[in-house]
Amino acid sequence: xxxxxxxxxxxxxxxxxxxxxxxxxxxxxxxxxxxxxxxxxxxxxxxxxxxxxxxxxxxxxxxxxxxxxxxxxxxxxxxxxxxxxxxxxxxxxxxxxxxxxxxxxxxxxxxxxxxxxxxxxxxxxxxxxxxxxxxxxxxxxxxxxxxxxxxxxxxxxxxxxxxxxxxxxxxxxxxxxxxxxxxxxxxxxxxxxxxxxxxxxxxxxxxxxxxxxxxxxxxxxxxxxxxxxxxxxxxxxxxxxxxxxxxxxxxxxxxxxxxxxxxxxxxxxxxxxxxxxxxxxxxxxxxxxxxxxxxxxxxxxxxxxxxxxxxxxxxxxxxxxxxxxxxxxxxxxxxxxxxxxxxxxxxxxxxxxxxxxxxxxxxxxxxxxxxxxxxxxxxxxxxxxxxxxxxxxxxxxxxxxxxxxxxxxxxxxxxxxxxxxxxxxxxxxxxxxxxxxxxxxxxxxxxxxxxx
Length: 452
Description:
Layout: H1 3-56, H2 62-67, E1 82-86, E2 92-96, H3 119-124, E3 130-137, E4 140-147, H4 148-199, H5 213-262, H6 269-300, E5 308-311, H7 312-330, E6 333-337, E7 345-348, H8 350-367, E8 371-379, E9 382-389, H9 417-427, E10 431-436, E11 442-451
Parallel strand pairs: 6-8
Antiparallel strand pairs: 1-2, 1-4, 3-4, 5-7, 7-11, 8-9, 9-11, 10-11
Helix pairs in contact: 1-4, 4-5, 5-6, 6-9, 7-8, 8-9
């Protein structure tokens, strides 16, 4: 069963149950109210009749009883109301309206021979077909009663009108439910179609579904997901294209020199030079494959990254020591400024973060003219490391793509070093960005949450 039918069926069942319970409750409440109102009317009539009896027949004697009229003075608003006056023995003294022909009646049952139940049962309250009220008078007990069927008839007439109103309201609510359900389900159906496009990798064809509330939020998330997947797909395609290009160059050199040596094209000293080129290109190829493998692991594997608490000062000191031979060879001066950060620690994979720092500083060594600066500080719980140089700086058009794979500057190598650094820093919970200093030169900043 479709979701729209399930929702409408559930709402219809709930609506029927609610209206049924409401109808039953209203039935009993309305009936109790009408019975109460009828009983109050009977009480008012009994008080009025008692006052008349007190005024006309104040003494309760046999003579006064004999003087009582056979029909009580009653001005009933309805002919369905009856009154009976009985003495202490239960004998009828008078009644209204007259329901008998003889003037002497020994029992109450003779007064109501045309009724289903006796007046005695009415007075005792065992007959639920009548509403009765009793009042003591100087002459005896005055009983007023009326059949409950009259009240039930009024109640049923009112209840029928209420049920008609309920039915009309229920139909209107059901139609409104169907309308609202369609408003909710239609965006879901369209969203399902867009998800099918994602399943078929048609990321560029995914449209944004306009809807309100949570459905709108989900639709927005689906559209953003499709955009990200499309971007990732493009990056992957570009990655493989660049990787194939980068791998093809050393492979062509290795293949060309190997064929030349095999076919005798190179002789003497040229053979040795060819073998040196083959060795250099093989080393370059090995480094490129290693970096690509590391990037793939950083993107997909969780166990390749093992976090621990490491000292910031020890990390920076080892970075400088590792690069010192390269600095001496390039005749560059490295200036460090990180004060007393011996107690500052950060949570990261020590070997991976050391590799990221080596990649960043090596990049500065490649472009610096005379000086390289490493400045570290703790600011508002964050560790900030700035690596700058006095080189020509980073071209503005290259800045947005500097940390992408296979993006490299004029004298770059594989174009994977800074991409690896970004992947490692982000896995450490940090952030890396690049820019140019106010006095020239490149500045690469790394930010990490610190542990003091």
